[in-house]
Amino acid sequence: MFQVKRYARLAAALVVPFLLMACAAAGPEPVVASFNEASVGIQLDANQMGFATEEARRDAVAKADAKAAEICSRGPNRKAEYASSRTFSTGQYTSATERLYLCLK
Question: Mind giving me the DSSP string for 14-78?
């Protein structure tokens, strides 16, 4: 009985990290970093982008484009147009990519 419980705990300890990794594999979610009615900055986790599949990267960029269009539509300039991107360090082992969009009429 005691042996069975030990194996059950061991199995749970091995399965839980894989389930968490599966949840994290969904791809990076875009975050609004800045907005001033003339431009909007959208951040993506560069670490997740680096390990993501090409399809997940395209999906993340499409989500960032949609988020920028949504944010730009709130101001006087309605259309979001991609302008540039930059990658910067957010810690010793982490980095983020900020995509800059201009809000145009």
Answer: HHHHHHHHHHHTT-PPPEEEEE-SSEEEEEEEHHHHHHS-HHHHHHHHHHHHHHHHHHHTTSS--
DSSP state letter for 8: H
Is-above-0.85 flag for pTM? no
Token representation of residue 30: 């875009």
The SS3 call for residue 85 is: strand
* Closest-CA residue to 51 (of 32, 25, 22): 25
CA distance 11 to 3: 12
pLDDT digits over 66-103, tens only?
A: 999 999 999 898 899 999 999 999 999 999 999 999 99
Is the Cβ–Cβ distance between 42 and 98 less than 8 Å? yes
Euclidean distance between CA atoms 65 and 100, whole angstroms: 10
